[in-house]
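Project outcomes to date are best conveyed with an example. Our students and postdoctoral researchers have been running inverse folding experiments weekly, and each run begins with a structure described purely in C-alpha coordinates. The record below, which covers 332 residues, was selected by the lab manager from last quarter's runs and is presented without edits.
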Protein backbone atom coordinates (compact mmCIF):
# COMPACT_ATOMS: atom_id res chain seq x y z
CA UNK A 1 0.00 0.00 0.00
CA UNK A 2 1.75 3.14 -1.20
CA UNK A 3 -1.04 5.67 -0.73
CA UNK A 4 -2.02 6.92 2.74
CA UNK A 5 -4.74 4.98 4.50
CA UNK A 6 -7.08 6.42 7.08
CA UNK A 7 -8.25 3.87 9.63
CA UNK A 8 -10.89 4.44 12.28
CA UNK A 9 -10.66 2.40 15.51
CA UNK A 10 -14.21 2.48 16.88
CA UNK A 11 -15.20 1.26 20.35
CA UNK A 12 -17.14 2.44 23.39
CA UNK A 13 -13.84 3.44 24.94
CA UNK A 14 -13.21 0.48 27.25
CA UNK A 15 -9.47 -0.02 27.41
CA UNK A 16 -9.63 -3.71 26.48
CA UNK A 17 -11.66 -3.29 23.29
CA UNK A 18 -9.94 -0.03 22.32
CA UNK A 19 -6.49 -1.59 22.57
CA UNK A 20 -7.59 -4.42 20.31
CA UNK A 21 -8.96 -2.10 17.62
CA UNK A 22 -5.99 0.27 17.88
CA UNK A 23 -3.50 -2.59 17.87
CA UNK A 24 -4.76 -3.96 14.55
CA UNK A 25 -5.08 -0.47 13.07
CA UNK A 26 -1.51 0.43 14.06
CA UNK A 27 -0.19 -2.86 12.69
CA UNK A 28 -2.04 -2.19 9.44
CA UNK A 29 -0.47 1.26 9.02
CA UNK A 30 2.92 0.05 10.27
CA UNK A 31 5.67 2.43 9.31
CA UNK A 32 3.96 3.47 6.11
CA UNK A 33 1.85 6.50 5.30
CA UNK A 34 -1.53 6.77 6.93
CA UNK A 35 -3.26 7.61 10.18
CA UNK A 36 -5.25 5.91 12.92
CA UNK A 37 -8.21 7.86 14.27
CA UNK A 38 -9.59 6.65 17.61
CA UNK A 39 -13.38 7.01 17.87
CA UNK A 40 -15.12 6.46 21.21
CA UNK A 41 -18.85 6.18 20.73
CA UNK A 42 -21.63 6.51 23.31
CA UNK A 43 -24.90 4.70 22.75
CA UNK A 44 -27.90 6.57 24.14
CA UNK A 45 -31.07 5.29 25.73
CA UNK A 46 -33.13 3.31 24.93
CA UNK A 47 -30.81 1.70 22.38
CA UNK A 48 -28.08 0.80 24.86
CA UNK A 49 -30.59 -1.47 26.59
CA UNK A 50 -31.46 -3.34 23.39
CA UNK A 51 -29.47 -5.79 21.27
CA UNK A 52 -27.81 -3.95 18.34
CA UNK A 53 -29.71 -6.20 15.92
CA UNK A 54 -32.85 -4.29 16.97
CA UNK A 55 -31.48 -0.81 16.26
CA UNK A 56 -33.31 0.46 13.15
CA UNK A 57 -30.82 3.32 12.55
CA UNK A 58 -27.53 2.61 14.38
CA UNK A 59 -25.93 5.99 13.69
CA UNK A 60 -28.98 7.70 15.18
CA UNK A 61 -28.50 5.61 18.33
CA UNK A 62 -25.22 7.37 19.09
CA UNK A 63 -25.30 10.12 21.71
CA UNK A 64 -23.51 13.44 21.87
CA UNK A 65 -21.29 12.27 24.71
CA UNK A 66 -19.28 10.22 22.22
CA UNK A 67 -17.52 10.83 18.93
CA UNK A 68 -19.61 11.27 15.80
CA UNK A 69 -19.30 8.86 12.89
CA UNK A 70 -19.74 11.12 9.91
CA UNK A 71 -17.98 12.06 6.64
CA UNK A 72 -15.31 12.29 5.51
CA UNK A 73 -15.23 8.50 5.73
CA UNK A 74 -12.10 6.44 6.39
CA UNK A 75 -10.67 3.79 4.11
CA UNK A 76 -11.08 1.17 6.81
CA UNK A 77 -13.24 1.04 9.93
CA UNK A 78 -12.15 -1.40 12.64
CA UNK A 79 -14.63 -1.84 15.46
CA UNK A 80 -14.45 -3.93 18.62
CA UNK A 81 -17.14 -4.70 21.15
CA UNK A 82 -20.78 -5.65 20.75
CA UNK A 83 -22.26 -2.14 20.55
CA UNK A 84 -19.73 -0.96 17.96
CA UNK A 85 -20.68 -3.59 15.38
CA UNK A 86 -23.97 -2.10 14.15
CA UNK A 87 -22.54 1.44 13.72
CA UNK A 88 -19.69 -0.12 11.72
CA UNK A 89 -22.15 -1.65 9.26
CA UNK A 90 -24.11 1.60 9.13
CA UNK A 91 -20.98 3.51 8.06
CA UNK A 92 -20.27 0.86 5.44
CA UNK A 93 -23.79 1.28 4.05
CA UNK A 94 -23.71 5.09 4.23
CA UNK A 95 -20.42 5.12 2.29
CA UNK A 96 -21.91 2.99 -0.46
CA UNK A 97 -19.67 0.09 0.49
CA UNK A 98 -16.49 2.13 -0.02
CA UNK A 99 -15.38 1.71 3.61
CA UNK A 100 -13.79 -1.65 4.37
CA UNK A 101 -15.70 -2.94 7.38
CA UNK A 102 -13.73 -4.97 9.96
CA UNK A 103 -15.03 -6.12 13.33
CA UNK A 104 -13.00 -7.70 16.13
CA UNK A 105 -14.63 -10.35 18.36
CA UNK A 106 -17.99 -12.00 17.80
CA UNK A 107 -20.25 -9.25 16.39
CA UNK A 108 -23.60 -10.80 17.43
CA UNK A 109 -24.76 -9.90 13.95
CA UNK A 110 -24.40 -12.01 10.79
CA UNK A 111 -20.65 -12.13 10.17
CA UNK A 112 -21.09 -12.17 6.39
CA UNK A 113 -22.35 -8.58 6.51
CA UNK A 114 -18.82 -7.42 7.33
CA UNK A 115 -15.86 -7.45 4.95
CA UNK A 116 -13.89 -9.25 7.65
CA UNK A 117 -14.44 -10.46 11.21
CA UNK A 118 -11.39 -11.09 13.41
CA UNK A 119 -12.43 -13.54 16.12
CA UNK A 120 -10.38 -15.42 18.73
CA UNK A 121 -10.40 -19.19 18.58
CA UNK A 122 -12.38 -19.53 21.81
CA UNK A 123 -15.30 -17.59 20.27
CA UNK A 124 -15.98 -20.59 18.05
CA UNK A 125 -16.85 -18.38 15.07
CA UNK A 126 -16.11 -19.60 11.54
CA UNK A 127 -16.92 -18.45 8.02
CA UNK A 128 -15.48 -17.41 4.69
CA UNK A 129 -14.82 -13.88 5.93
CA UNK A 130 -13.78 -14.83 9.49
CA UNK A 131 -10.09 -14.65 10.43
CA UNK A 132 -9.49 -16.77 13.54
CA UNK A 133 -6.76 -15.77 16.02
CA UNK A 134 -5.18 -17.91 18.74
CA UNK A 135 -5.58 -15.26 21.44
CA UNK A 136 -6.80 -11.66 21.54
CA UNK A 137 -5.21 -8.99 19.34
CA UNK A 138 -3.50 -6.11 21.16
CA UNK A 139 -0.98 -3.24 21.01
CA UNK A 140 2.02 -5.01 22.55
CA UNK A 141 4.79 -5.36 19.96
CA UNK A 142 8.39 -6.52 20.14
CA UNK A 143 9.50 -3.00 19.19
CA UNK A 144 7.46 -1.37 21.95
CA UNK A 145 8.75 -3.84 24.54
CA UNK A 146 12.36 -3.32 23.43
CA UNK A 147 11.99 0.46 23.70
CA UNK A 148 10.58 0.16 27.21
CA UNK A 149 13.38 -2.20 28.24
CA UNK A 150 15.98 0.28 26.98
CA UNK A 151 14.26 3.03 28.93
CA UNK A 152 14.33 0.97 32.14
CA UNK A 153 17.83 -0.43 31.56
CA UNK A 154 19.74 1.88 33.91
CA UNK A 155 17.73 0.80 36.94
CA UNK A 156 17.67 -2.91 36.22
CA UNK A 157 19.08 -5.44 38.70
CA UNK A 158 19.92 -8.58 36.66
CA UNK A 159 20.47 -10.69 39.78
CA UNK A 160 16.84 -10.24 40.83
CA UNK A 161 13.93 -12.03 39.16
CA UNK A 162 11.32 -9.54 37.94
CA UNK A 163 7.73 -10.68 38.48
CA UNK A 164 4.90 -8.57 37.08
CA UNK A 165 1.35 -9.24 38.26
CA UNK A 166 -1.58 -8.03 36.14
CA UNK A 167 -4.70 -7.81 38.31
CA UNK A 168 -8.21 -7.68 36.90
CA UNK A 169 -11.30 -8.08 39.02
CA UNK A 170 -14.78 -9.47 39.34
CA UNK A 171 -17.13 -9.48 36.38
CA UNK A 172 -20.41 -11.15 35.53
CA UNK A 173 -18.79 -14.59 35.32
CA UNK A 174 -15.76 -14.59 37.61
CA UNK A 175 -15.14 -13.26 41.11
CA UNK A 176 -11.86 -12.08 42.56
CA UNK A 177 -12.77 -12.53 46.23
CA UNK A 178 -10.94 -11.23 49.27
CA UNK A 179 -10.11 -14.82 50.23
CA UNK A 180 -8.49 -15.47 46.83
CA UNK A 181 -6.56 -12.20 47.05
CA UNK A 182 -5.33 -13.06 50.56
CA UNK A 183 -4.07 -16.54 49.59
CA UNK A 184 -2.49 -15.15 46.43
CA UNK A 185 -0.67 -12.40 48.34
CA UNK A 186 0.63 -14.93 50.88
CA UNK A 187 2.14 -17.02 48.07
CA UNK A 188 3.72 -13.93 46.52
CA UNK A 189 5.15 -12.91 49.90
CA UNK A 190 6.60 -16.40 50.38
CA UNK A 191 8.17 -16.12 46.94
CA UNK A 192 9.84 -12.84 47.89
CA UNK A 193 11.25 -14.43 51.04
CA UNK A 194 12.57 -17.46 49.17
CA UNK A 195 14.59 -15.70 46.47
CA UNK A 196 15.59 -12.22 45.25
CA UNK A 197 12.47 -10.96 43.49
CA UNK A 198 11.40 -7.58 42.12
CA UNK A 199 7.62 -7.79 42.48
CA UNK A 200 5.37 -5.31 40.68
CA UNK A 201 1.56 -5.36 40.71
CA UNK A 202 -0.67 -3.27 38.48
CA UNK A 203 -4.41 -3.25 39.29
CA UNK A 204 -7.01 -2.43 36.64
CA UNK A 205 -10.20 -0.40 36.67
CA UNK A 206 -12.09 -3.53 37.73
CA UNK A 207 -9.91 -4.18 40.77
CA UNK A 208 -11.92 -3.44 43.93
CA UNK A 209 -10.11 -1.17 46.45
CA UNK A 210 -10.52 -3.87 49.11
CA UNK A 211 -8.49 -6.26 46.95
CA UNK A 212 -5.70 -3.71 46.54
CA UNK A 213 -5.72 -3.08 50.30
CA UNK A 214 -5.37 -6.80 51.08
CA UNK A 215 -2.49 -7.17 48.63
CA UNK A 216 -0.71 -4.15 50.10
CA UNK A 217 -1.11 -5.39 53.68
CA UNK A 218 0.04 -8.93 52.94
CA UNK A 219 3.01 -7.77 50.86
CA UNK A 220 4.20 -5.10 53.29
CA UNK A 221 7.92 -5.43 53.91
CA UNK A 222 8.60 -7.45 50.74
CA UNK A 223 9.59 -4.45 48.63
CA UNK A 224 6.66 -5.08 46.28
CA UNK A 225 5.58 -2.10 44.19
CA UNK A 226 1.84 -1.67 43.66
CA UNK A 227 0.65 0.97 41.20
CA UNK A 228 -1.70 3.30 43.07
CA UNK A 229 -3.47 4.65 40.01
CA UNK A 230 -1.67 8.00 40.00
CA UNK A 231 0.46 9.18 37.11
CA UNK A 232 1.04 7.20 33.96
CA UNK A 233 0.11 3.53 34.04
CA UNK A 234 3.38 1.53 34.14
CA UNK A 235 1.65 -1.44 32.46
CA UNK A 236 3.83 -1.58 29.31
CA UNK A 237 7.03 -0.79 31.25
CA UNK A 238 6.41 -3.60 33.73
CA UNK A 239 5.52 -6.05 30.98
CA UNK A 240 8.78 -5.20 29.22
CA UNK A 241 11.06 -5.82 32.20
CA UNK A 242 9.29 -8.94 33.49
CA UNK A 243 11.00 -12.31 33.70
CA UNK A 244 7.70 -13.91 34.74
CA UNK A 245 4.12 -12.63 34.50
CA UNK A 246 1.06 -13.60 36.53
CA UNK A 247 -2.42 -12.67 35.27
CA UNK A 248 -5.83 -13.08 36.87
CA UNK A 249 -8.15 -15.49 35.05
CA UNK A 250 -10.83 -12.93 34.16
CA UNK A 251 -8.89 -11.09 31.45
CA UNK A 252 -8.36 -12.55 27.98
CA UNK A 253 -6.78 -9.27 26.86
CA UNK A 254 -4.15 -9.09 29.61
CA UNK A 255 -3.26 -12.77 29.18
CA UNK A 256 -2.82 -12.24 25.43
CA UNK A 257 -0.67 -9.16 25.99
CA UNK A 258 1.47 -11.06 28.51
CA UNK A 259 2.04 -13.83 25.96
CA UNK A 260 3.45 -11.29 23.51
CA UNK A 261 6.54 -11.01 25.75
CA UNK A 262 7.50 -14.66 25.23
CA UNK A 263 8.09 -14.93 29.00
CA UNK A 264 6.51 -17.56 31.29
CA UNK A 265 2.90 -16.58 31.98
CA UNK A 266 0.98 -17.92 34.96
CA UNK A 267 -2.76 -17.49 35.45
CA UNK A 268 -4.60 -17.15 38.76
CA UNK A 269 -7.97 -18.98 38.76
CA UNK A 270 -10.96 -17.14 40.23
CA UNK A 271 -14.36 -18.22 41.50
CA UNK A 272 -17.10 -18.74 38.92
CA UNK A 273 -17.11 -20.00 35.35
CA UNK A 274 -17.36 -18.77 31.78
CA UNK A 275 -17.48 -21.33 29.00
CA UNK A 276 -15.74 -18.90 26.64
CA UNK A 277 -12.95 -17.72 28.93
CA UNK A 278 -12.43 -21.13 30.50
CA UNK A 279 -12.07 -22.63 27.00
CA UNK A 280 -9.49 -19.95 26.21
CA UNK A 281 -7.36 -20.78 29.25
CA UNK A 282 -7.73 -24.55 28.85
CA UNK A 283 -6.48 -24.28 25.27
CA UNK A 284 -3.46 -22.16 26.20
CA UNK A 285 -2.47 -24.52 28.98
CA UNK A 286 -2.90 -27.59 26.75
CA UNK A 287 -0.68 -25.97 24.09
CA UNK A 288 2.06 -25.10 26.59
CA UNK A 289 1.61 -21.33 26.64
CA UNK A 290 0.49 -20.79 30.24
CA UNK A 291 0.37 -22.56 33.60
CA UNK A 292 -1.73 -22.16 36.73
CA UNK A 293 0.11 -20.22 39.44
CA UNK A 294 0.98 -22.41 42.44
CA UNK A 295 3.62 -20.22 44.08
CA UNK A 296 6.59 -21.58 42.12
CA UNK A 297 8.57 -19.93 39.34
CA UNK A 298 9.50 -22.24 36.48
CA UNK A 299 10.96 -21.52 33.06
CA UNK A 300 9.48 -22.66 29.76
CA UNK A 301 9.66 -21.48 26.16
CA UNK A 302 7.06 -20.90 23.47
CA UNK A 303 6.69 -18.90 20.30
CA UNK A 304 4.50 -15.87 21.11
CA UNK A 305 1.26 -15.76 19.07
CA UNK A 306 1.55 -13.15 16.33
CA UNK A 307 -2.18 -12.60 16.08
CA UNK A 308 -2.20 -8.84 15.58
CA UNK A 309 0.20 -8.88 12.63
CA UNK A 310 -1.71 -11.80 11.09
CA UNK A 311 -5.00 -9.92 11.42
CA UNK A 312 -3.47 -6.87 9.73
CA UNK A 313 -2.22 -9.11 6.91
CA UNK A 314 -5.74 -10.52 6.46
CA UNK A 315 -7.09 -6.97 6.10
CA UNK A 316 -4.41 -6.12 3.52
CA UNK A 317 -5.46 -9.20 1.57
CA UNK A 318 -9.05 -7.93 1.55
CA UNK A 319 -7.86 -4.56 0.31
CA UNK A 320 -5.91 -6.19 -2.50
CA UNK A 321 -8.92 -8.31 -3.42
CA UNK A 322 -10.97 -5.14 -3.76
CA UNK A 323 -8.24 -3.45 -5.77
CA UNK A 324 -8.09 -0.74 -3.13
CA UNK A 325 -4.52 0.37 -2.54
CA UNK A 326 -5.58 3.27 -0.35
CA UNK A 327 -6.87 6.74 -1.00
CA UNK A 328 -7.34 10.08 0.57
CA UNK A 329 -10.34 10.42 2.85
CA UNK A 330 -13.63 10.40 1.00
CA UNK A 331 -16.05 13.28 1.16
CA UNK A 332 -19.02 10.96 1.70
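After processing, the design step wrote out the following sequence:
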Amino acid sequence: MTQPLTVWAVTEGQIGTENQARGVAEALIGGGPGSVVVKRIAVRAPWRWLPPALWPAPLMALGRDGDALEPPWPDILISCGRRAAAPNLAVRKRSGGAVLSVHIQRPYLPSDRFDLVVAPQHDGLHGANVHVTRAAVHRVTAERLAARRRKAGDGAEPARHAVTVLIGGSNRRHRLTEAIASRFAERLAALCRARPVDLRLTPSRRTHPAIVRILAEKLAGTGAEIWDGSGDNPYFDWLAVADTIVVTWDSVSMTSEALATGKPVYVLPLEGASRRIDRFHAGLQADGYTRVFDGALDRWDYVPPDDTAAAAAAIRARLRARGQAGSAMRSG
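DSSP finds nine helices and 14 strands in the chain. The chain has two domains: 5-134+307-322, 142-292. The training component of this project remains on track.
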